[in-house]
Amino acid sequence: PDWDQATPMFEEAAKVFLRYKQFKDAQYSYERASEGQQRLGSELHAVKHLEAAAECACKDKRHDDACNLYRAAYETFAGIGKIAMGAAALSRGAKLLSEEGKTELVKSLYEMALEAIEDEGGVDSSSAGSLVVTSQDLFGSYTKLLVEAKLFQDAARNELRYAAFVNSLSSFNGTRSLCRAYLQAIVLNLVAGGGQEALATWNDCFEVEGFMSSKTASYAQDLLDACRTGDYKHFMDCVQNGGVLYELDNSIARLLKKVSEATFDQVASGVGAQTLTVDQLAQQGAGGAEEEDLC
């Protein structure tokens, strides 16, 4: 067809079908309008129509179609080098499908988006600014989804993944983001009853520049000490009065506040006497530095 003439006709048809709730026909019209915009060299308008088509598919309960259309929107952006914008489109799709309760489809979109920005971050640090803004929303939203699905250890792994991403951006000073991500991973593992994973994360924190001198290190240490000694009262005092809640996302803070005396044993399980304190970790690091000097 003559896309100069056909494209606005498809756009108008989509609006009419949508007005009368003919979602399948509206979806088709938006898809053709998107194709027309691409052929005319307007990828931004093409993506706009793809997302409109996905919304129509979602209203018609054809969730797989909606998911594939958001993937196509990402590919369109990726084709012109707009990775962060493509990832943002996937995030919008994930949020829409999350409202429909399609957790597996949502996870697939988040995974695609995160892989995209991780690959881009490792290749082109000049794009760090837009990637960081996008990644904060993506990783945070994904963690929230996993928490709501009660997949706490998956959420903890996502926080560590975010920390690794931020650490890979040499042009971005992400110390605060790193500290917060590690603290949230520790808390999520504790809530999941994964004391060993919480300890492993805590011990890894010593390698994070600036962590051991931060407030987040003190908060994590206090929680781990309370778990190690099995002192529920001290644990809840740390939660309610120690300031840790201000360093956590709301969804994670709520989990910590809900720990009861009956569930505390599960939270504290796996946290034993091998827990290293901030001072012990500092001493361990100093010893390691001396050994390196002798080599």
Question: If you had to describe this structure to a student in words, what would you say it looks like?
Answer:
With 295 residues, the chain is mostly helical. Helix content is 78%, strand content 0%. It has 15 helices and no strands. The longest helix has 21 residues, at 103-123.
Q: Tell me the structural class.
A: mainly alpha
- Our count of helices gives 15
Integer-rounded radius of gyration: 24 Å
Beta-strand portion reads under 5%
Largest sheet: none
Q: Percent range for helical residues?
A: over 70%
For the residues shown, what is the average pLDDT?
A: 89
Form type: elongated
- Strand tally is 0
Straight-line distance between termini: 73 Å
Task: Give the low-confidence spans.
Answer: none
What string gives the helices and strands in order? HHHHHHHHHHHHHHH
Architecture blueprint of SSEs:
Layout lengths: L2 H17 L3 H17 L3 H17 L3 H17 L3 H17 L3 H21 L4 H21 L3 H17 L6 H17 L3 H10 L10 H15 L2 H10 L8 H8 L3 H8 L9 H17 L1
Helix pairs in contact: 1-2, 2-3, 3-4, 3-5, 4-5, 4-6, 5-6, 5-7, 6-7, 7-8, 8-9, 9-10, 9-11, 11-12, 11-14
Quick summary:
With 295 residues, the chain is mainly α.
Task: Summarize this structure as a short list of keywords or feature phrases.
0% strand; 295 residues; mainly alpha
